[in-house]
User: Fold this.
Amino acid sequence: YAGRLSGMIVRNPDGDAIGRARDVVVRLRPSGAPSRALGLVLQLTDKRRVFVPMGRITAVEPNEILLNSGLVSMRQFKARFAVVIVLQLSVALLGIVTPFVIGQAIDAVDAGTTGEHIRNLVIVLFFVVVVQGVLAYFGEFQAMKLGEYVFTTLRNRVVYGVTHLPLSVVESAGTGDLLGRTTHDVDRIAGFVQRG
Assistant:
């Protein structure tokens, strides 16, 4: 089924073609549980590839895919996450090297090694700690930027959704519900992305 989607025309709610489907992003589940489709990768008419979550897809027709909103994120879906993941993995790997070097130094002292060998191990340890600190700083910075991006995107989508609801629905929801969705809920998701 996913193979059939590749190359299908994607249309916004007005019926305008905005690009073609190129791939399906799925979350694989362990122990043979069914996989879950997260969204589609679209190639827009200007050749850029973007991610569209499944919640933004209204229908999959035999020859086209219809979106429920014309707002498509123009950022490539992998770039920001990849930078954060690479930086955080690098920090974690360097965190493993530090105890290893300390253990080597202790074993070398116990074996009666020269002072020069111990000095070299201390230099390596210093270098690893400095690089780990720099990478940790940039990893945290990129995670914060990603969180702010998610925060802005979510808040804009909530406001867009609320402003396009019928007035009777907005009035029946109550001020507290709308305010809670646009502040606390979105803040929690952004915090999770930044800290997670």
User: Anything to note?
Assistant: The mean pLDDT is 78.
